[in-house]
Amino acid sequence: MRADSASETTNHAVRIAIGYGIVIVAAVALFVLIRSFGSGLVAPAPSPHQELFGQAADAQTPGTLLHVLLAFAVVIVAARAVGVVFGRLGQPPVIGEVIAGILLGPSLLGHFWPTGFAYVLPSGITPVISVIAQIGVILYMFLVGVELNPSYLRRNSNAVVAISHSSIVFPFVLGSALSLFLYPIYSTSDVPFGVFLLFMGISMSVTAFPVLARILTDRGMHRSRLGTIAVTCAAIVDVTAWCLLAFVVSAAKAHVGEAFQTFALSVLFVAFVLLVPRRLMGALARRMEGRVEISHGTMAMVLAALLLSAFTAEWIGIHALFGAFILGAVVPHDSTLARDLTRRLHDVTVVFFLPAYFAFTGMRTQIGLIDGIEHWIICGLIIVVASLGKFGGSYVAARFAGLRSRESAALGVLLNTRGLMELVVLNIGLDLKVLSPTLYAMLVLMAIATTVATTPILDRLNRDRRLFGKTQRESEQVVNVAGAVSDRLEPTTLWNQEKTR
To answer: How far apart (Å, rounded) are the C-alpha atoms in residues 300 and 251?
Structure first.
């Protein structure tokens, strides 16, 4: 019985093998026959459209993809590694990631190992990294807008608005004055002095709202009176600075007549976003309340609106980043929609896209252009002027608002934090050719130096752990700056009066 079963199994296997062989032989024979019939056929000449298609296909070579994949792997690992090191040193990890991008650029890797730099970050992949980096920073600015709490802009309205605008006006004026010295050295006749002046003022006025908030949160200071004032001021500074930057970009891109047209379109665009998308986002947020997470359809709709808003801002002539920021700002801050958007987009933006932006910045930053003692003295002068403007303006306004001397100093140090927001502004300036590569490198060093200095100086001012001891509830007391000028006898009098109400 068993012998018959084994014989039947063997015969079945033989039949399968024979059938398989017949199929293979028949397929080969048919292939040879078809090839012989087709060898005499003639195809028409390629059309111009086909040639363009072929060129586009050739541009995306396997070598380009390999270099892009390798470059992103190296960039992500380097950014996280240096960020962790800086985090353990008490610095914001984002500064370590920025420095990692510079280390991978021509300033270090390209200088000491040009062969490795040419292989990991060849010039041929720069356009690819540029596009990915721009998309990443568009997502980041959208998230900055989403995380912007409107109550920051309403809380402590008198004092905070005065302090925040002082921290813009003082550095803006000093930066404008510094442009009188820098323009003949680092600019060209192609750049109108008015545009250069405005851009230098903006670059000195920016505060890194996200980095400042992260510094305070890591130290448990964000709910204190002074921490809340600092975050509120930074939010107002960023909103004001981005509006000013939109105007400067429109002036740099257009002639005088076109600049007014761009300004008018920008006002209409902002009004439209505040009237239509704001209501739509509010309705969408109310619809999403009570759900665990938003649907894929909702996510697609929000991302489409984001890209269209960025597209519109870029088309108008201000900048795509402004469109992303203002759309994010109209998303209800404390809604399920905002929280789920942040949860889904934050990690991929911070871990993948932003390191690409830092690498892109590093590839454009050539520290070697700051050559000679004269250039380094000028670089130091830029850092000093930027710090004096931010610290001085914030300190004076805070003292008039009734804050104590050490509180005012801490606030000035915090608002002197620039971080990633400054890099975004500087890259826009370099793209518009308002900044030369040398001046761009100096301003990047200024952004890094002012941000790195924040943590140690703040820790020094708060050495007794009493500076940020007040609660957020106390910080919500309104400080009247106008009354501070006339009523206070001592720096702490008005503030103490407000606390006892």
So the answer is: 34
Go through 179-210 and write b for each residue having 16 or more CB atoms within 10 A of its CB, e for each that does not.
Answer: beebbeebbeeebeeebbbbbbbbbbbbbbbb
Distance from C-alpha of 418 to C-alpha of 94, rounded to nearest angstrom: 11
Q: How far apart are CA 133 and CA 210, in angstroms?
A: 18
**List of residues 6+ apart from 398 with CB closer than 8 A:** 163, 407, 408, 411, 412
Q: How many residues does the chain have?
A: 501
Neighbour-count burial of 470, counting CB atoms closer than 10 A to its CB (0-12 exposed, 13-18 middle, 19+ buried) = middle
- Ramachandran class of 79: left when φ > 0, alpha when ψ lies in -120 to 50, beta otherwise: alpha
For 81, the token pair is: 């590694």
How far is it, in rounded angstroms, from Cα 165 to Cα 171? 10
Long-range contacts of 112-120 (CB under 8 A, 24+ apart): 119/67, 120/67, 120/70, 120/71, 120/74
Model confidence, pTM: 0.72
Do residues 144 and 128 lie in contact, with contact meaning Cβ atoms separated by under 8 Å?
no
Nearest residue to 417 via CA among 441, 391, 392 = 391
Residue pair 391/413 in contact by the 8 Å Cβ criterion: yes
pLDDT tens for the chain, 501 residues long, are 555 666 766 776 677 778 767 877 877 777 677 767 666 666 566 555 444 434 444 444 557 788 888 888 998 999 889 988 988 887 878 888 888 888 888 888 888 888 888 888 887 888 888 888 889 888 988 888 887 776 655 655 566 777 888 888 888 888 888 988 898 888 888 888 888 888 888 889 888 777 777 777 666 666 677 777 887 788 778 777 777 787 777 777 765 556 677 778 888 988 999 899 889 888 888 888 877 777 888 889 999 999 999 999 888 877 788 888 889 888 888 888 888 888 888 888 888 888 888 888 888 888 888 888 999 999 999 999 999 999 988 888 888 877 888 888 988 998 888 877 788 888 888 888 888 999 999 999 999 899 888 888 888 887 766 666 544 344 344 333 323 333 332 333 323 333 333
